[in-house]
Known about the structure:
The complex is a heterodimer. By secondary structure, chain A is mostly beta strands. Chain A is 9% helix and 25% strand. Chain A has helices at residues 6-9, 12-27, 170-176, 234-244, 454-461, and strands spanning 37-39, 46-57, 63-71, 77-79, 98-101, 105-113, 130-134, 136-137, 142-143, 149-155, 160-165, 179-185, 223-232, 270-273, 300-301, 307-313, 319-323, 328-333, 336-337, 351-352, 354-357, 362-367, 440-442, 483-489, 506-511. In chain A, strands 13, 14, 16, 18, 19, 20 and 22 form a seven-stranded mixed sheet that branches. In chain A, strands 4-1-5-12-11 form a five-stranded mixed sheet, with no helix packed on it. In chain A, a hairpin with a 5-residue loop joins strand 2 (46-57) and strand 3 (63-71). Chain A is globular. The two termini of chain A are 25 Å apart. By secondary structure, chain B is α+β, with helices and mostly antiparallel strands. Chain B folds into two domains: 2-35 and 51-131 and 142-265, Immunoglobulin-like; 267-337 and 420-530, Sandwich (Immunoglobulin-like). In chain B, the strands form seven sheets. In chain B, strands 13, 14, 20, 22, 23, 24 and 26 form a seven-stranded mixed sheet that branches. In chain B, strands 1, 2, 3, 5 and 8 form a five-stranded mixed sheet that branches. In chain B, strands 19-28-27-21-25 form a five-stranded mixed sheet, with no helix packed on it. In chain B, helix 1 (2-21) runs antiparallel to helix 6 (155-162). Chain B starts with a helix and ends in a 10-residue tail after the last strand. Classes of the chains: A mainly beta, B alpha+beta. Chains A and B meet through helix 1, strand 17, strand 20, strand 23 and strand 24 of A and strand 7, strand 8 and helix 7 of B. Strand 23 (440-442) of chain A pairs antiparallel with strand 7 (222-224) of chain B, so a sheet runs across the interface.
Amino acid sequence: MSQMNTKTRIVIARLIPVMMAAVALLVGTPAHAAVPGITGLSPTPTFTLSAEANFISQPDGSMVYSWGYGCLVTPSGFAPAAISGASCSSMQIPGPTLIVQVGDSVSVTLTNHLPAAAGNTSILFPGFQVTTSGGSAGLLTQEATHGGSVTYTFTATTPGTRAYYSGTQGDLQVEMGLYGAIVVIPASTPAGCRAAGGTLPDGQTDFRLAGAAYDHPATCYDREYLFQFSEMDPKIHQQAEAIANCASGPGITCPNSMNTVATENYHPAYYMINGRSMPDDMDPNYAAEYPHQPYNGNPHMHPGELVLLRIIGQGRWQHPFHEHGNHVRILARDGNLIVSSTDPSKLAGPLLFTTTTTPGLAMDGIFYWTGKGLNWDVYGHGYPGDPSVCIPDANGYYTTDPLAPNYYEWCADHNKALEKAPFGQVASGGPVTLPDANILTNGAWYGGSPYLGPDATIRATGPTGTTPPSGTVANPPGSEAGFAFMWHSHNEREITTNNIFPGGMLMMMLVDPQAFPIDESF
Amino acid sequence: MRKLHQMGVSLLLGGLVTGVASAQSFRVQCPTTTPLHSTAATPAVPNPVGGSIKCQQISGGDGLATMGDGTQTYIFSFGPLSGLNDIASGLPGTEPAKVFNTPFDPGAAAGTFASNGAVGLTTDPEVSSDPLCQPTNLNPHPDYCTTGLTGHVDPRQIMDVGVMNGNIPAPMMAIDEDDEFFLTLTNVGMIMRPDLFEQHTVHFHGYPNASSFYDGVPDASVAINIGGSFTYYYLAPDAGTYFWHCHITPPEHLQMGMVGQLYVRPRQNRVSGISLYDGLQAQQVDLRTKCGTDILCSSPLPPVNSVPHALNKSGSPTLYAYNDGDGSTAYDVEYPIQIHGFDPSFHFVGMTFNPEQFVDMKDKYFLLNGRSYPDTVKTDTYVDVGASTGNSAFVGQPRVSNAIYTQDVDGVARPSQPLPTVINIPVGGKALLRISDLDVTEYQTLASLGIPMHVIGVNARLLRDLAGNNLAYDSNSVTLAGGESIDVILDATDPKYIAGNTYYLYTPNLDHLSNDAENFGGLMTEVHICNSVDAVKACH
């Protein structure tokens, strides 16, 4: 994407699907994310799930035979309510995100529609005290036999983000896609947090599931995203598919189990976030192109918003998830809030710029971006006649007017010039000289200038006759002009899709100017 | 090799022609004053806001490096275009504006400004027509009106020094909190791969509240074409061990070697006359450094204490890794250690004109600061014998260096791996290991045999909860993925660690104790207890 040269020519043919997907992404309106999932009727939500086989789409054009959990019957509800067009197919990867309330008695009935050779299957809910009914005894839990069912019941005792996944022949079944997430919402909104629903202070739609991640005022948030990391070795999937499709006949004896599938010499080629590889992960939730991969990975936020990251390792490898733009305060591991041993009102989780995902481990963290400390005004204020104001609150941010285009500006840098020489309609007298644009190559997510937002970008580039650069279509300078940051696995080999760069565990996060509405509903 | 050699020379000439043709776009930026640092600070008269202006210039290109088994390996790489003498001595190449703005002279005595100045910097023939230098400008004229040093460079010198001068790790950077840092990346092209017109960038990994413009992600910003220079501008962020790398096609450019070290020293090093606690308390007055209710607060106040800013083992004011407010991150000597891995097959394909494969990437050289054991403990001083024949003047490198030199395809040996990883600790002292990892394929573990690892920070942040409790812990190993950093103190204050003792840092990933086919080497180095350790970290 960032280059086109001899080295890549040979793989161009293989890149075409990626490029087509990228183009599809680029010409569409940017999609967003939130934490979509299915709900039941509190206090006794029931979920009727199926485990079955189908094909998931990868951006190299391949359709990979996989197994996933899905909804056998339509769930009683979808959340967040503000996302329309939600659906739950009978097989999806990751499995449906189960959204329940603290104290709910959760009942999950699983029916095994996997191929007969796959044998039994099951679900583990680590972190909960599970009782079972039906099914047949397995090593770790009761299992659903081929065509049969089993029911798991547990009380959602504590809030937080956790994983669920197959407890049967996990080396194969989890690899094949039998995993998902469960989000438990706190019983009430802690003091100082805003309850979910309705609108944010700036009047924009609230897409949260809850007012806080935990029963703790330090866990308030304004926006949330779920990231499930997994990888796939296509050879395992091919072997499983061959057995599933095997037809007995004269001289042909089909295996009656998947035990011959070689799950060692593990050699993944696909690295996915929420079941999709880049750029597919930046397409909308429930996009029609991915009937079995409904969830995306495409965070957007406004400056100053507290963004809850729910991160789960669902594969068998660890992945160093690097969040460009700022550090993340880890709140909790596997639903266990980490607080100070001497003062439980204070958080004690580490600050990380790389949040390692570990198989089976879920963590919650808070991220935000404000531009504090850059020593220049990212809004390009400070030109003659500039009407903008920045009145610092106790923390130094402009929070008086949630409708102002510079809501949450870091006031100490207000009017501080970046550029030395006068150019366009931004402050001058600053420290740097920007280079001639002709020696640079613009990225697809480049906002068009060093500044945040279309107003500043047009002022910084427009009045002198130049215009914002073209080709930055994923973050248009004239309408969005956000600050884009790459969120990706820092074991960089994993930002490829079956040898093709870019791909894999990679997405762009957008800090959008306050004036740009973030609509997660598509 | 002969054919390759000839090809390299012809490519070199071609590259020079290209470089000259696009010369106008090379330039550096290093103002002597800015709105924040409005006076040129001196050690005697520090700037009232703290910090100062620091500058550095790097090339983006390629080169060759020498692996532990003697193999010459092709790398995409950054090389020094300022601070050359300091880098040859294993020090950061970040220089105060005054030093950077002294044009580099390869013949200058070690330690002089000219030995560390910007390569290519020369007087601007057009300075007299600069509007700010005209008599009609009644404001104070900028310094460059008299010096002529506007940032204009002679591209020939840039190409002479920059082509093939790649280092692994890339030139080290170190700044102090409140510094303004002007970092110029000059893309000299990859002469071994003329088919590529690769852009390069700098990603300052971990910079909090980054602007995407200076974040170095080509998709989200701009990338620097061959023949161009771009100056990144940063106000030094919160203290800690960060690192930097190119962000173009990361699985390729990072594997190929475009990775470097970067750390920020804390404001606490400047505390004087008051306790460290009071020093940190004073930071709460400025909203920029105040903790308040910020959920991302990096330095919560510890329990009240009166620990002073005492002197260290060498009699100078103690340095700290973080603004700890209690002295808990004090050290006597610091060692940046970058973990990396090279896949020789990928590097070989990378030198040819074929597409590399990512799925099969498998590291077989395991590197500490670009070297495998036993090269990690090699501290020989290299004296450039070619200097008298003009060779040194052509290459433009310091005559005396601790680097490993690798002969490039044009027959010229250039410094490729400037940084040994010998940990010399003064007896009774503490060493800070600033460990970062930029491996692109797998997690690596580094263990200490003998001296426990006291882990004080992760990901450039002090291990401390928001109530001020110290969460540092002791361990005998640390594990990192690419994209992580950890600060470890090797505490040798116990009298059982006596001068002359040797300990080891090594990887318990035992298959990483190898240099490709050699079953001995890899991710390993030595720790020495010394009677004293001097300014260039030599053991006495």
